[in-house]
Amino acid sequence: MAGDLKRAYTRSLLVLAMAVLAGCGPGEEGMTEELAQQELALRAGPRRLASGGGTQWVHTVRSAAETDAPVAVVHDSRGSVLTLGNHRTPVDAGGDVPAGTSVLVLSKYSLQGTLLWTRLLAAPASTGTPYVRGLALAVEPYDTVLLTGVQSGGLELGGRVLPAGAFLARMDGDGEPMWSRSLPTTATELAVNTRGHITTAGTLTGQVDFGNGPVTGASNPYLVQYDAQGTLRWVHVDSARGVSMDLAQDDAGDLYLAGGRFVPPSPLLVPSVSRVSAEGTPYWTRPLEGATGVVMSVAAHGGQVVVSGYFTGKIIFGDRVLDAPTSRGFALAYGRDGAARWGSLLGSTWGLVEMDQGSGVVVAGRYTGGEDFGLGLGTMEGYPGATNVYVLRLQRPSGELQWSHTYPSAQALPVDLSVSRQGESALTGTFRAPVDFGTGPLSPAPGANTFLLQLAR
């Protein structure tokens, strides 16, 4: 749901593997003559296939290391945009940190796109090879900020010096640390409800103690909830092995964990989503039987749960048969009871989803130029390989298309999506080839190139 949770680092870890599995097109060697010719043909900018969703503003962040990447984007209650990223200095976000240091970068932009502030978190050099990496980001009801990460040790946040490993921190609305605590294992997803209860999630391997005794996992998704003061409320470890990709929370505080499950004897992931009550009781799990792939993103609001990701295979969803002989993206809607509502095939791969406070569902992902995109949009212009970016808005009750935009590029990757309470959409990702998000062509510089795009409702 807009403005109360974020995740995404798991996606960054799996980007390369998913790109290979999904056939995501050309790498970093540079464009062929054929691609160069297509570049000229496609420079007219984004393709708008319905009214709405126009570009409001675009920002870029560039840094020296090619492994740098955005992690999360989220709106606060006023519509300001916060971003979390991992970079190696120097980075054009500034900061007085020695060159070559791995830092966490937290930034805030106004509704109009003005950069309000940037905070760089860096571990002391005394830890050997210092690093801080962000994993997840959330905004609380009064616009304080929660984030999770891992660091090499000695990071001081909110008056506490943290030991090496995973941590949870709260920052005020100006990005200044309020408090922090260490965590027994990495938390790649994060949510907070209206009571201030904080839920962390991830994939558990080995034995850890969250505070109520040891629990063990062998690549098992987990959820842990704390109250507003940081006192442990409950722990849930899924009985099935798999991977956690995203976490959503509905209006009643129930939680939805998306990702994939290993279903023996196959070594491949089956896309799945699970509902767990606000008190930690598992309600249901919905694997997409007959498919391999992953649910990358989940959103919940208004009695409906929408998931997006990619799969290969054939699934039956309600009264529809969705057939994907090769990798296809999807958007699927469930009721809170887990019953299928509507579903669509979208693009070639990837899938991010968020909801606004009204009846809108926004989906972003990648598509292959020349393919039948889905939703009756027909053949879409773009580059070969699933390297082009799309953003579209659907009606939540029916799945009917409201607007759609495509952004052709020979190498662009959406990483995270947020929708404000008012319905604006913010998308962050990377580009390693020219792309036009509606304000003119962006050309990549050597190293990492991050984009932040804000669209109207």
What oligomeric arrangement do these chains adopt? single chain
Summarize the biggest pleated sheet: 5 strands, antiparallel
Q: How far apart, in Å, are the first and last alpha carbons?
A: 15 Å
Number of helices: 2
Strand line-up across the major sheet = 1-14-15-16-17
The tally of strands reads 34
Label the structural class. mainly beta
List keywords for this structure.
single chain; 457 residues; mainly beta; Neuraminidase; five-stranded antiparallel beta sheet; 5% helix; globular
Polypeptide structure, described:
- A hairpin with a 4-residue loop joins β15 and β16.
- The protein has helices at residues 9-22, 33-42; strands at 5-6, 47-48, 55-63, 69-75, 81-88, 102-109, 115-121, 132-139, 145-151, 156-157, 160-161, 165-171, 177-183, 189-192, 198-209, 214-226, 232-237, 242-249, 255-262, 269-276, 282-287, 291-301, 304-317, 320-335, 340-346, 349-355, 360-367, 388-395, 401-407, 412-419, 425-431, 435-436, 441-442, 448-455.
- The longest helix has 14 residues, at 9-22.
- With 457 residues, it is mainly β.
- The two termini are 15 Å apart.
- The strands form nine sheets. It has a five-stranded antiparallel β-sheet with strand order 1-14-15-16-17, with no helix packed on it. A five-stranded antiparallel β-sheet has the order 2-29-28-27-26, with no helix packed on it.
- The chain has a single domain (5-121, 240-455), classed as Neuraminidase, CATH 2.120.10.
- It contains two helices and 34 strands.
